[in-house]
C-alpha cells in the first residue's frame, strides 16, 4: 500500500517541463527543511520515486558565503547534516552532503545532478535568499521542478494577501483549520516504501564536488577554521540537528509547557520553548511540535473547537498553557511566513502600515536623548543595563529571551537617528548573532517594534509618535529578572550602581 499523497495545496510547479522518463533518479534538493522525517518535500520526492520506479538522491548543500555566515551558523547546519547522514543510513536513498570550501565552488552542482534527474523536488521557503535561489534554479533545470511547502499548519497557498494584524490572521486560520484540518508529513517516511538503490555518482561529480568528510560534518574546530567568515561569532552552546531538536521539544513539553501561559515572560522562570533555532533551520517541523503538544494534552482532531472570531483561547480545546503556546506556533509564527510570501519587501521600511510610516516620519527629527553606533550596540555599550544584558545574552548564546527581544528592539528605535537606521541595525544585529535570525519571525519581530501587526497607541510620544512604547523601568517592575541580570548584567548587575535610565 502506497503512503498517502502530499496535498496539492503544498506543491508549486516551477517550470513547464515534464518528468524525464529516461532519468536516473529523483532528486530532492534539501535547502530549508533540513530533516529526514516530518518533511513534506521528502515525502513528495519519495512519492515521485515510487511512481517512476527510480532511486532517490538527496542533495543537502551548504554555501560558504551566505549573508551573515559565521562559525555559529555553519556549525549548527553541519551538525544537522551529520544527523541527516545518520538518519538516511540504511534507507533506500543516496544522501549527498556537500559543503563549499570557498565561495562559488559549488556552482554547477545542482545543474549537473538535475541533468540526470527525472524530477527535482525542492523546499518552498519565503524568506532570506532562498526565493531568489530557487527562482534561478527554475530557469536552469530542464525537467519538472516542484517546490513543496512544509512551513506550517496552514499552507502558504491558502492566503491571497498579507494580513495586517495577528487578530485578522487568527480569524483566517481558525476558519481554514476548522474547514479542513491539514494532513501531516510522515514521521516515518520509509514505512511501506520500496525503492531501487541509486548507483554511485559520476567520477566527474565526485572529483569537482566531493562529499563532505567526517571532519566537516562533525564541525571540528580545525575544519571550521578554514572558512572565511565571522569567526568572532562563536558557535552556540547548543547543538544543531534533528536529535537535538527532538530532545529540546520533549524537554519543553514535559517540563516547561505547563508553566508557559503564566511564566513565559519572566526571564528568571525559563518557561519559553527555545525551539526557534531548530525550526528556523528545518531540523524540526512545526507539525512535529504540534503533534507532541497534542499528545501531551490527549487531544484528537475531533476535539477541535469552532472558529471563535479570532480569540486566542478556546479554539483548540486544550489547556490554557497549550493554547497560549499554539497561538505562538501557529498564529504568530505563520503570520510571518504568509507576510513574507505576499510581501517581498518584508525587510523594508516601506512595508510598514501607512499609519506607522506616517507617525514615524512625523517624528523623524525629534531629538534623541541617546544615540549609539552599530558597534556600540553590538558591544552592549549603552547606558541601559537591562538592554545591555539582553544583548550580551544574544552575543554569547545566539538566543535572547522572547519578551526582552521586544524591549531590545524598541530601545534601538529610540536610540538611533531614524526609524530606517533602527530597522537596519536590528536586522544586522539579529541576523549576525541569533541562530534563529534571517527568518520570517525575525522580520516580524523587528518590524513589530515599528508598528507592523500592531495599532496606534496613545499617548503620542517623541520619536515613536503613536507606535507602541516600552520601558526598561516598567520591564523591571513587571518581570522577574534578578537571576537573569546576575548572569548577564556584567558590571551593571543588581546592586552595582544606577540601574534604569529610560
Any overview of this molecule?
- 43% of the residues lie in helices and 7% in strands.
- By secondary structure, it is α/β, with parallel strands linked by helices.
- It folds into three domains: 1-150, HUPs (Rossmann fold, 3-Layer(aba) Sandwich), CATH 3.40.50; 242-342, Serine Threonine Protein Phosphatase 5, Tetratricopeptide repeat; 349-492, DNA Cyclobutane Dipyrimidine Photolyase, subunit A, domain 3.
- Helix 2 (71-88) links the parallel strand 3 and strand 4.
- Helix 9 runs parallel beside helix 12.
- The mean pLDDT is 95.
- Here the CATH topology of the largest domain equals Rossmann fold
The total domain count is 3
Q: What's the shape?
A: globular
Q: What CATH architecture label of the largest domain applies?
A: 3-Layer(aba) Sandwich
The fourth-level CATH homologous superfamily of the largest domain is: HUPs
Overall pLDDT confidence = 95
Number of helices: 21
Amino acid at each position: 500500500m502506497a503512503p498517502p499523497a502530499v496535498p496539492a495545496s503544498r506543491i508549486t510547479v516551477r517550470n513547464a517541463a515534464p518528468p524525464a522518463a529516461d532519468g536516473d533518479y529523483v532528486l530532492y534538493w534539501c535547502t530549508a527543511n533540513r530533516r529526514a522525517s516530518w518533511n513534506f518535500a521528502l515525502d513528495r520526492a519519495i512519492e515521485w520515486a515510487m511512481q517512476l520506479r527510480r532511486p532517490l538522491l538527496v542533495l543537502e548543500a551548504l554555501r560558504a558565503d551566505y549573508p551573515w555566515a559565521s562559525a555559529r551558523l555553519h556549525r549548527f547546519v553541519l551538525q544537522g547534516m551529520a544527523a541527516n547522514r545518520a538518519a538516511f543510513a540504511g534507507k533506500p536513498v543516496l544522501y549527498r552532503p556537500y559543503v563549499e570550501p570557498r565561495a562559488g565552488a559549488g556552482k554547477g552542482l545542482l545543474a549537473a545532478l538535475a541533468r540526470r534527474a527525472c524530477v527535482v523536488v525542492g523546499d518552498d521557503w519565503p524568506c532570506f535568499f532562498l526565493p531568489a535561489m530557487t527562482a534561478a534554479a527554475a530557469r536552469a533545470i530542464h525537467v519538472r521542478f516542484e517546490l513543496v511547502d512544509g512551513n506550517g499548519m496552514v499552507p502558504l497557498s491558502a492566503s491571497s494577501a498579507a494580513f495586517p494584524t495577528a487578530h485578522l490572521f487568527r480569524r483566517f486560520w481558525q476558519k481554514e483549520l476548522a474547514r479542513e484540518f491539514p494532513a501531516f508529513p510522515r514521521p516515518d517516511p520509509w514505512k511501506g516504501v520500496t525503492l531501487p538503490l541509486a548507483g554511485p555518482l559520476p567520477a566527474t561529480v565526485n572529483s569537482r564536488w566531493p562529499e563532505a568528510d567526517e571532519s566537516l560534518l562533525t564541525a571540528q574546530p580545525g575544519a571550521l577554521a578554514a572558512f572565511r567568515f565571522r569567526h568572532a561569532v562563536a558557535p552556540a552552546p547548543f547543538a544543531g540537528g534533528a536529535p537535538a531538536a527532538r530532545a529540546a521539544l520533549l524537554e519543553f513539553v514535559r517540563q516547561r509547557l505547563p508553566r508557559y501561559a503564566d511564566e513565559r515572560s519572566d526571564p528568571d522562570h525559563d518557561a519559553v520553548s527555545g525551539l526557534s533555532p531548530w525550526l528556523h533551520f528545518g531540523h524540526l517541523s512545526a507539525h512535529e511540535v504540534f503533534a507532541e503538544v497534542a499528545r501531551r494534552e490527549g487531544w484528537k482532531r475531533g476535539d477541535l473547537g469552532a472558529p471563535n472570531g479570532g480569540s486566542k483561547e478556546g479554539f483548540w480545546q486544550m489547556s490554557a498553557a497549550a493554547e497560549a503556546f499554539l497561538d505562538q506556533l501557529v498564529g504568530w509564527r505563520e503570520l510571518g511566513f504568509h507576510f513574507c510570501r505576499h510581501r517581498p519587501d518584508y525587510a523594508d521600511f516601506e512595508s510598514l502600515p501607512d499609519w506607522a510610516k506616517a507617525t514615524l516620519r512625523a517624528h523623524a527629527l525629534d531629538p534623541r536623548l541617546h544615540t549609539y553606533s552599530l558597534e556600540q550596540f553590538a558591544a552592549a555599550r549603552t547606558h541601559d543595563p537591562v538592554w545591555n544584558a539582553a544583548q550580551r545574552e544574544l552575543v554569547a548564546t545566539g538566543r535572547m529571551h522572547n519578551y526582552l527581544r521586544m524591549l531590545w528592539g524598541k530601545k534601538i528605535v529610540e536610540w538611533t537617528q531614524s526609524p530606517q537606521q533602527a530597522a537596519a541595525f536590528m536586522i544586522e544585529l539579529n541576523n549576525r548573532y541569533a541562530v534563529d535570525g534571517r527568518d520570517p519571525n525575525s522580520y516580524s519581530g523587528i518590524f513589530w517594534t515599528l508598528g507592523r501587526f500592531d495599532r496606534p497607541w496613545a499617548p503620542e510620544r517623541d520619536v515613536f509618535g503613536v507606535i507602541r512604547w516600552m520601558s526598561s523601568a516598567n520591564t523591571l517592575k513587571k518581570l522577574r529578572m534578578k537571576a537573569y541580570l546576575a548572569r548577564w548584567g556584567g558590571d551593571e548587575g543588581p546592586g552595582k550602581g544606577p540601574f534604569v535610565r529610560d
